[in-house]
Structure formats: C-alpha cells, structure tokens
UniProtKB/TrEMBL annotation:
<keyword id="KW-0723">Serine/threonine-protein kinase</keyword>
<keyword id="KW-1133">Transmembrane helix</keyword>
<keyword id="KW-0067">ATP-binding</keyword>
<keyword id="KW-0472">Membrane</keyword>
<dbReference type="InterPro" id="IPR000719">
    <property type="entry name" value="Prot_kinase_dom"/>
</dbReference>
<feature type="region of interest" description="Disordered">
    <location>
        <begin position="280"/>
        <end position="310"/>
    </location>
</feature>
<keyword id="KW-0418">Kinase</keyword>
<feature type="transmembrane region" description="Helical">
    <location>
        <begin position="316"/>
        <end position="336"/>
    </location>
</feature>
<dbReference type="GO" id="GO:0004674">
    <property type="term" value="F:protein serine/threonine kinase activity"/>
</dbReference>
<dbReference type="GO" id="GO:0005524">
    <property type="term" value="F:ATP binding"/>
</dbReference>
<keyword id="KW-0547">Nucleotide-binding</keyword>
<keyword id="KW-0808">Transferase</keyword>
<dbReference type="Pfam" id="PF00069">
    <property type="entry name" value="Pkinase"/>
</dbReference>
<keyword id="KW-0812">Transmembrane</keyword>
<dbReference type="InterPro" id="IPR011009">
    <property type="entry name" value="Kinase-like_dom_sf"/>
</dbReference>
<feature type="domain" description="Protein kinase">
    <location>
        <begin position="13"/>
        <end position="269"/>
    </location>
</feature>
<protein>
    <recommendedName>
        <fullName>non-specific serine/threonine protein kinase</fullName>
        <ecNumber>2.7.11.1</ecNumber>
    </recommendedName>
</protein>
Amino acid sequence: MSIAIAPPQLPGYDVVQRLGSGAAATVFLYNQQMPQRPVAIKVSNAALDPASAVTFHREANFMARLSSNPYILTVYDAGITPDGHGYMVMEYAPGGSYRDKVQSRSMDCDQVLDLGIKLAGALFCAHRSNIIHHDIKPSNILVTAQGVPVLSDFGISTDAYDHTDTGFSLPWAPPEVIEHRSNGSESADIYSLGATLYALLAGNSPYQHTYHPRTQAELADLIINSPLPPIQRPDIPANVESVLGKALAKEPDQRYYSALEFAQAMQRVQQTEYGHTTAITAEGIPAYPDDTTRQRRTSTDQGSGPSHRHWGKRTAIAITLVTVIAALCLSVIIAAPSFTSAHAPHANARDADMPGKENNQAEDTVTGTENGQIPSPQNLSGQYAVDGSSVTFTWTNPSPQQGDSYAWSFVQNDASDIGSQATITSATSISVAPQDGAQTCIQVSIIRSDRHMSANPAIACAVRP
C-alpha cells in the first residue's frame, strides 16, 4: 500500500507534479533551475533513522559512479530533507517502461537479445561495485528522452527482498529468495534479468506464462517446483531458449557465473542467429567475446567498443534529434502545424536503440549539440483566465536568434505520457484550453532555424484557481 507524501521544497528545484508512488518512496517531477532541465526526484516515504541515513549516502555515492554507464539511470544528486526524508535526483525518463512491451509482445528475438546484452553489461558494472539491484523487472527498465533503455530503481535505502508486502516482486524472484535461502545476490539478479527477457518474448513472466496461476501462493510454488515452460513462439531459436533457461535455473550455482558471462552467451547466440553482435559497454571489458566475429553494427551500437566506450548518452541525443528533425521537415512539407516531438523518444525507441536501423550517420548529420547545446526556454509560467476558460503560458528565450521558433506540447496530468502532438509557434506565449483536473502542464523547447532543438524542454504547470 502506497503512502501519499507531499513533495519537499528543495533549493534549486521547482515542483511540477507527482509521477508515482510505492510503499517505500514517491517520485516527483521537478524542474531543476541550474542547469535548467526536468528531473525525477525519488523521496523516501518515511524519515530515515541515523543508521539508514549513513547507508543511504554511501549507496547513493555508489549509484552516482555507476551513472557513467549509458544503460543505468543517471543520478545527479542526493540528500536528506530537513525532516529526515532521503531524496535522490535522477535523470527524467519520459519514454515509459518496458512493461507495455511485455503486454504487446512488440519485440522480436534479435531486439530482446540486443536489450539483454546492454542490460547485462550494466548489471555487471553494478555487481563489480558490490551493488545488487534486487528488483529487476520490465517496469524498472525505463526509456530515456533519447530512447535509451536504462536500469532504474536499485532500491537504495531498502532491501527489496525483505519478504514483506513491500518487498520483492514475486513473478521475477528466484526460488532461493522465495524460500528465504537468500536475500538477494548477483545470481538472483541474473535470474530476474532472464525472467524479464523471457517475458518480453512470451508476453508474461515465466511461470505465469502457460501455467496461469490464480494466487500468489500458487505462483510461488510453480517457481520453486515446476519446470520452466517453453516460450512457444516459432520464431524463437532453440539456443535462445537454452541461454534463457540457464539464467532461470532453479539453483543459483547452475546459472551463469556472472552477468558478464550471461551477456557473452547472448552475444554468441546473436552472432549465430542474426549475423551481428551488440557490444557490451563496461569499463575495462572487451566489447565482444574472443570467439565471436566482430561485425560493425548499423545502429547505435556502432562505435561502442573499448575505444569509444564513453559514447554514452550524447550520441543517443544526436540520434533522437535526427528523428525529431525528420518529423519537423515532414510537417513543413505537408503544411501541418505540428509534429510528434513529444512522442519521438518513446515512439522511436526501437529506431534509435534496436538492431537493424540505419542510424550510423546521425553524428555526421547533427553537429554542435555537445559544445553548442540549444538552451531551454526560461521563466515558463502559466495562469488560468478569471473564468477558467483558458490558460495562458509565457516564456522567454535566453539567447534569441533569427528564425527561432518553439515546440510546445501538453504534459498529461497522470504522467503516463508526456504530450500528444507538439505544436510549433513563433510567439513566446500561447493560450490553451484547460486540461481536466486541478492543473494544466506544458513543455516547451526552442527550435533554431537549422532545426536543432533544446536538449531539455522547460516544463511548467498552471494550477486551477
């Protein structure tokens, strides 16, 4: 059962809205003032005792170091509020999670292997720093604004395997955790990642697939005692099921020795079945196993080997901007006043991040995004009309240039999506019909004449009087 808490007032951050809550923490969307960008801030629902506060600080420092991996959610800052609540300032990932992809079964086997290799490499980096995730599942794999999948929610201040109603997520937990033989380990994380990849192919967690248990107790018994059911998709090669089957072995010592070994097993299968190999991104680790033939990818994995291991999220930003620019060009051609820039990171996640997409020319096409980053609008604010029939938003351009325009879109009140259609305007103010609910929220980006956009939109809400 989640606990509703008020967003804390934090210096340098403006509250936008609540994104979601759980038993241990609540996540809010804030605008960071300097540098200006939207951020997600996770706040513990309960005040931390002194011992927990020390642990929180130590583990937050570990997580900040892990943030250099492009497939782990970036942590910008952390601290304790005056009334004792721990908080963590994180990268805002507006593209949703992979939970919807499980339900839609929209990913093919090559795409799932691509994702698995990236996340297993990230998990290896965490394990090497003695950090156990504890709760890998589709809803904890987020999609950033650049369309990059990232592991999130490492359970900083709580043990996710504490066997209470607020503990681990049963469908993704290994037998030894369910039976109280372990409170989480590297091997347990490997199992949970294997279960997540299985679900992306099967459409459900391993022991909910085929068996369809009716209770939690029945599901727990299936995980402990029943054989792993086949995925039952004709397009899934037998060696892929074999690799996942080893990750999902009942006994920990029968699984892969490490997340790195799991990633390399997936690389070998990908090479055999699809003729290419996704690189592992981990400091000091070869991007490809010695026994696979390295083939350069025509996707965002190109250049992610050891000599380019810090390509990170900046390259992905360039790739996403190309997608947005293409949409903008199309809108001009057909004389339509809007384009789906707000959806571009989410709708094009596969284009920017999955195999078989011709994105390798993006860095040559989009230039100046690193050293000449387009600023975000400033002083964005909104106010309802006296009769409540409209909302007027205004903003300023910190460095106006000839030909500047602005893309704005609604931020949905339930935070399940950020915007629908982005609309282009040359003015620095708009009047819109109010959204349902207590507030109306928008995001705004600057578009230069060369079609480069703000790296981070400004976000603000007007509260209904």
